[in-house]
Design brief:
Oligomer: single chain
Radius of gyration: 18 Å
Distance between the termini: 38 Å
Number of domains: 2
Number of strands: 10
CATH topology of the largest domain: Rossmann fold
Number of helices: 11
Structural class: alpha/beta
Bound molecules: D-glutamic acid
CATH class of the largest domain: Alpha Beta
Helix content: 40-55%
Strand order of the largest sheet: 4-3-1-2-9-10
């Protein structure tokens, strides 16, 4: 069945991290209108309590629902692992989440050692514990909290020495433990991939779940007849930040999107 549903795909994250997910979704579904909510005022989520993360995720969802979204992509591992079950039980709209790609990493590791860099609240969530338990018992996960990274990324210090030093500090112990696969369990860290590659070298594979999230978004829209197959109109892509828009504008420069500051 051909559908022309022009309602928006909504996204939220604590800031600019989820833009990597937005890009993947847009590449796969170029006819769709999108709204992205960057809750920069409340970043980082990774150091908040579960209750606070749930409260913020509900607030973000309400904002997006008021904009006529047809699906919400929780473009944040911390919000997904702490709040998506509550969101799904509270609202009828479909939610797509992103979780650390431990399972695919488990399928490709040869050394049986997987490194994961994520926020404190993701690594300590029940959802992450459940996914980890399903791995083959021979596989060891070397967990590392990326403390300080999100603040620096949100502050626009992606190529700073501070970030480089933190990455060395976080990744060297994983290398010593012989990982061959590194899972990036926070959407913000995708901005650090060039620097991470310099530290870990070519032989360690970096796994991120953004393509899987985009495919899942397409599948769900298709199965519920919610896709917009009409390609005759220019799509609308709106970005909102509740802090300032400097960092959003820098990341999105040259893209035909609208960027607004809004107090939510
Ligand atoms: N980008 C987020 C994630 O994927 C949130 C990071 C944070 O705000 O601490 O976990």
């Amino acid at each position: 069945m051909k559908t022309h549903n022009k309602n928006y795909i909504g996204f939220f994250d604590s800031g600019i991290g989820g833009i990597s997910i937005w890009k993947r979704v847009k590449d796969l579904l170029p006819n769709e209108n999108t709204i992205y909510l960057a809750d920069c005022k409340n970043a980082p989520y990774g150091q908040k309590s579960k209750e606070e993360i749930i409260e913020l995720s509900i607030k973000n969802t309400e904002f997006l629902l008021n904009q006529n979204v047809k699906i919400i992509v929780v473009a944040c591992n911390t919000a997904t692992t702490n709040a998506i079950q509550i969101l799904r039980s509270k609202y009828t709209i479909p939610f797509i989440g992103i979780e650390p790609a431990i399972k695919p990493a488990g399928l490709i590791t040869k050394t049986q050692r997987i490194g994961i860099l994520a926020t404190d609240k993701t690594l300590n969530s029940d959802l992450f514990a459940k996914t980890s338990e399903k791995l083959d018992s021979d596989i060891k996960i070397i967990e590392q909290v990326g403390k300080g990274l999100v603040n620096l990324i949100e502050g626009g210090h992606i190529e700073s020495n501070e970030i480089k030093n933190l990455l060395h500090q976080y990744l060297q112990p994983m290398l010593q433990k012989n990982i061959d696969t590194l899972v990036l369990g926070c959407t913000h860290y995708s901005y650090l991939i060039p620097e991470i590659k310099k530290i870990i070298g070519k032989h360690i594979k970096i796994i991120d779940s953004s393509l899987a999230v985009a495919k899942q978004t397409k599948n769900i829209l298709h199965s519920r007849n919610l896709l917009n197959i009409n390609n005759e109109f220019k799509t609308i892509d709106q970005f909102y930040s509740n802090k300032n828009t400097t960092i959003l504008s820098r990341i999105l420069k040259n893209l035909p999107v609208t960027i607004c500051e809004k107090n939510f």
